[in-house]
Amino acid sequence: MFKQSNSHYSIIIKSIIFLSISISCFSQRIETNVNKNWKFILNDDASYSKEILDDSSWKNLNVPHDWSFEKGVRKGGDQGQGGGYHDGGIGWYRKTFNVNKTSLSKTVYINFDGVYMNSEVWINGNHLGKRPYGYISFRYDISKYLKAGKNTIAVRVDNRLEPSARWYHPCGIYAPVKLIEVSKSHISPNGIFITTPKIESNQAQVNVKVGYVNPSNALKYQFTVVTPTGQKIQSDIQKIDGDKSNTTLTVNNPVLWSPETPVLYQLITQVIQNKKVIDEVKTNFGFRTVEWKKETGFWLNGNNVKLKGVCEHWEGGPVGGAWTKPMLRWKLQLLKDMGINAIRPSHNPTPPMFYDICDEIGLLVMDEIFDGWHKKAPQDYGKQAFDQWWKADMKEWITRDRNHPSVFVWSLGNETHSPVAPELVKFGKSLDPTRLFSSGAGNPEDMEITGINGGSETKSFIESAKFDKPFVSTEAPHTWQTRGYYRTHTWWRDNELPGTYDLPNLTEKEIFFYEGLDPKKWKNRKQRFNSSYDNATVRISARKNWEVMRDTPWHSGHFRWTGFDYYGEAGLVHGGLPFNLFMGGALDVAGFEKDLYYFYQSQWTQEPMVHILPHWTHPRMEKGTVIPVWVYSNTDEVELFLNGKSLGKDKPGTVWNEMQCEWMVPYEEGTLVAVAYKNGKEVKRVSIATSGAPQYLKNSLNKLKAEDGFSSSYIFTSESLDSKANLYPYGENRVYYHISGDVEKVSMENGNPIDPISRTKSDYRTLFFGKGRLFLREKDNAKKASVITASILGDKALFISNKITIDVQENAIIGKTSKSNFEIFYTTNGDDPLKNGKIYTKPFEVKDHSTVKAIVKQNGKLILTLEETFGTSEGLFWGDEHSLDIWKGRGINIAAEEAILKGGAKTSKDAKHFKGTGFVKFDNEEGSITFYQENDGEAGDFSIRFGYMHNDEGKTYPMKLFVNDIYIKTFEFEATGGWIQNWQYVNTIVNFKSGANNIRLETTGQSGPYIDEMYID
Is 415 considered catalytic here? Predict the structure, then answer.
């Protein structure tokens, strides 16, 4: 073992002799991208599989494609709260392609990188097979069905059974497709396995195993290693003996792969017949050593490294599941720039391009295959296909991904438990004995590395944990933030749980009183935005979690839940519609950085940075109100100025609540400036200023370069600014888009968790806390494109000002724009501006409850119709210290083991995934559980539910519910499907009096199920 400094990245590798052999290329492998020009219909008919069919009325599109994303959010959507209320259904794809006569003597595969789910494929009307799992690559040999000339592929995708995942999933061919044409004798799919069993500073050993299809004694193979500098090592040609070969090569002065130095080598594997290359595969690989130690955690290349990771679903706000490589690179690079060194694709494999990018930019991957090994969501893969398909899917997964240096550990499941676990590990080891196997809290006793999810966040866990194997926190921390929203009081998702670290309020009384929704309209206490001070959480703050991880030697690191916000799990965490996404990310679904992003950057990156929070625009706040001003920075110290006056210096500390520089600042309008110093010299400064009402849009463009057959993408950002170019941080006006030329709209995103406007079909999207984005994709042979933005701008509530501005801009996307003549007509009384509008020349004033309508003409042609309503009841809800009183005493979970137990009711821990420290069981005896709840608010109706579990099929355990000794109802606890982890709920509405209330569950002569907790909302 040896250590390697970052300077190795720049080493020029010494010359290596290239053994020249005269070999000509002949009939090599041809891989053809077939992502373009598919036909699609969201319907089902058996005739769609036929070779000859009139599909001219079907939609023409390119894959990757996700029809669920395109359809959007719908109340009652098939995927339910877990899928963000998106739909499923059945869709068909068809594509024609031409085949040359010479290709008929070859083997031709069609390869799909990802189709969700239950896909079936036909070629020229011939059924090739079915693949149930939506998150795995697969291919079919279509050689015998091809003919010279026109050929037709048909793909049926069946998502009738929903919800089929516990989070949002795509629907359709959401990943690339290609045709692979090879000689009849060729390297088998996923047939190359590269290992580096011996790595020393001056020399490394490369072992290559290769599988072949239709080998013969007349064939030979050759391997060539290409170094990062383009030099080559070429082996002697050897004869193929059987359907496998095994060769060892030596590389001098290997440069190691790591997140800091993602150096890639390439292996060229060739099959040779009579000195002609008849097949060739190029495989990237890297040199790196991985060790796991029980006492000291994770070691990479001889260095003890903390895993600074995030979890990420494949779903993405701007694209659903239909990532292109440029967009995916943008996403992963944003996370890398935050300072992460690892990522866990949760809870499924991703298309191969994901791992390619991680190899290239330097991200370690905890590669995960399954969520559950049995049913977890009502209609998931665990229920539909796991037992029949897990071996085939695991083989594809491991053999496909095992050459990536970024993949450093295999994860077999997530929050699941089953006797099948040892078999999964054994089978995985047969495919790759070089990496260890773990899981996210799934059968940890059977894994080689203990992975624990949210339970690893508590003080009681950290201070009492003892392991006989290495440990990694596979899902932690769980904290929520809404970009641009602040509260000084701590918010616990389930109230403060036992055994957690302290997270005190920042001020004695709350000082911020705005919400996305009027609290009177909330369905439950979760339907609020979450504070960006790192004080909205389940169990722990992000700062404390990092301190614990950093300072605990046996703690290998964590995978934060999550990197980006994502659609889905909106009911579980945020109470359901109108919330349709999950706000646990360091970035929102539009890719805007939250304050949390900069916290991690301050801890995990070296380039000097400084970031101030909160913003400094508080028009409804009383002057002099003391505001906690935080600055995240990785410099030695920071000095804060308000209106030119120094408020003193502070140093970022290492203890969790000192990691931010902090000042308690009495509020007054003006400018805050943070100046960062290193070694006494200024290295960075940023400023924020109090904003007036918005008057114009600042538009900016980010081009993502085309690669691997994917066209360029564009991210077009709009921000609402006041007359002095300050961001108006409450901006929530609509931005309308008129797109022309050689680009197409992918979506509009703003990060707003409750915005009901279609991301794909509408021509506008509101700004969310001052920001919004339009995502575009370039068409073929693009030469010119532009976007016109139009917005009726002003303070929605007319509190700052009743002055309104109409802003129209033409923005070049590709090429230059021609100078346009714009005419704007508007009305303030709701009239049609086309008929009765005034011509817009300057800002104008409106009264309360005014609807402004406008039209925009470009060179005399109507291109946009705008509308915006202003008034005291519009936009964000602005309240006071009593606005949330109606929610006192709600959103509370009380563990059954902490209640008063009588009779045969007794505490147990003999199950999985219970809340708190245990649960209550009856063991065929009679008894009762009495909970107490102090209602600090007024008397009223409350929703209560009880978590329970049992597996006695056909039997219900009736239990009577009493509130304050008054009989309410009898629950019939039906079987949940298990005694281990299949917890479900029963619920009802009860009336609580003000003050103390007792809630009693009592058996009725037939004993009772396991009872875990009572939840009050």
Answer: yes
